[in-house]
Amino acid sequence: MKDHNQHKYKGIVRGFFHQLLTIDFVRYCIARLRFFYFVRICRKLKTFDLSTQKAIASNTVFHNLKGLKDLAVVRSLALIKPVTAIDKVGIHSKVLTIGPRTEGELLSLIGYGFLKKNIRGLDLISYSSWIDLGDMHAMSYPDNSFDVVIMGWVISYSEDPVKAAQEVVRVAKNGAIIAVGVEYGGLVAQEQIKNLDYIPGAGRLTTQASQLTDFFGEAVDHVYFSHSIDEDRKDLKGSVIAVFSIKK
Predict the structure, then answer these.
(1) What pTM value is reported for the model?
(2) Other beta carbons less than 10 A from residue 84's beta carbon
(3) How many CA atoms lie within 13 A of 238 on its CB side?
(4) Regarding beta strands 238-246 and 131-133, do their DSSP bridges make them parallel or antiparallel, or are they unpaired?
(5) Is the Cβ–Cβ distance between 198 and 58 less than 8 Å?
(6) Distance in Å from the first CA to the final CA of the chain
(7) pLDDT (tens digit, 0 to 9) for every residue of the chain, 248 residues total?
């Protein structure tokens, strides 16, 4: 997934315009225009019915509806960039991104070389034909569908992360790359969690990447990248990240 491969398979002109999507401001503007058209004009915003779903933390949809202003989705680059550095990931890889909220994350994937036709999003909120409405604990995709699965800051919202991980393994191909990220709010933020409108995953505190890979159990094969919270930053806000392959 290097730039020269992007140009080779996408063509110089199309590759150039797609690379513009790696610029945060450009990506934001395009995502903003599309958001305004589909949400404000076409009224296509819809949410998943959680009435019979107990695996998703309460107020998840309500909280994430307020996050729809994050149209550039810059933090997702912390997962996308390590994934694109892996040699086995290529322009024709089929990618599933879970919980993108808006199209910004999908636009980033296009900018970093993936083909739009091979990218699907899945979320409890959707206004776009690019993003399927659904639950990560029970996805409608067939077994062995994706080469890459990105779970950007979503597994924290699960009351049953092992079930979510098992479902990801099911829809992923043998050898697929999984990228998982969660937010760490710091000890100070945890003390103030009562002021939030949601408590993701019943307030689980994740500080180590190994806590993320543990959800996937024996399916974890090779860990390509991990980022944990250092002891001297335990009071600060940050991210815990794991990028790994799976074996089935």
Answers:
(1) 0.89
(2) 21
(3) 18
(4) unpaired
(5) yes
(6) 24
(7) 444 454 446 677 778 889 999 999 999 999 999 999 999 999 999 999 888 778 887 778 887 888 799 999 999 999 999 999 999 999 899 999 999 999 999 999 999 999 999 999 999 999 999 999 999 999 999 999 999 999 999 998 898 999 999 999 999 999 999 999 998 765 545 554 545 444 455 466 788 999 999 999 999 999 999 999 888 877 777 889 999 999 99
- For 64, the token pair is 């994430």
Q: Enter the tokens of residue 203.
A: 């307030």
